[in-house]
Write a structure and sequence with these properties.
Layout lengths: L3 E5 L3 H13 L3 E5 L2 H11 L3 E4 L8 H11 L8 E5 L1 H5 L16 E4 L4 H12 L2
Parallel strand pairs: 1-2, 1-3, 3-4, 4-5
Helix pairs in contact: 2-3
């Protein structure tokens, strides 16, 4: 059975590029363009992994979505890869090891990302 990836990002072109990359690597992909619909899809679709942007309707929406996902029994253990250009846009730098209390995600990656690296990171977090 294929692993399901939920991509939550408001950049529809990027979502389609990730969809093509991930589907070619053998994953099923569902998407949402904002945090509210992303939370709803996480609850209904039960993805194996979530790729989450930070800056959508607000500059920090992805952080709030990550906190909510971690607080719910059905999504608290789903790996989250936060993929964002927030460092480029704001100058904030995140380190998973140093910021784990603030940043409740499995991985933080900067946009743009090489498609091979994205697939490698997804496989790493899914153990495939």
């Amino acid at each position: 059975m294929k692993k399901k990836i939920l991509v939550v990002d408001d950049d529809v072109d990027l979502v389609e590029a990730m969809r093509i990359t991930l589907e070619n690597a053998g994953f099923d992909v569902v998407d949402a363009q904002d945090g509210t619909s992303g939370l709803a899809k996480a609850r209904s679709e039960k993805p194996d992994l979530i790729i989450l942007d930070v800056m959508m309707d607000t500059q920090d929406e992805g952080f709030h979505v990550a906190y909510q996902l971690r607080s719910e029994p059905g999504t608290k253990d789903v790996p989250i890869i936060m993929l964002s250009a927030v460092t480029q846009q704001t100058g904030y730098k995140f380190d998973k090891n140093q910021d784990s209390d603030f940043l409740p995600v499995s991985e933080f990656l900067e946009k743009p990302i090489d498609p091979r690296k994205l697939v490698d990171k997804v496989r790493q977090h899914l153990g495939t």
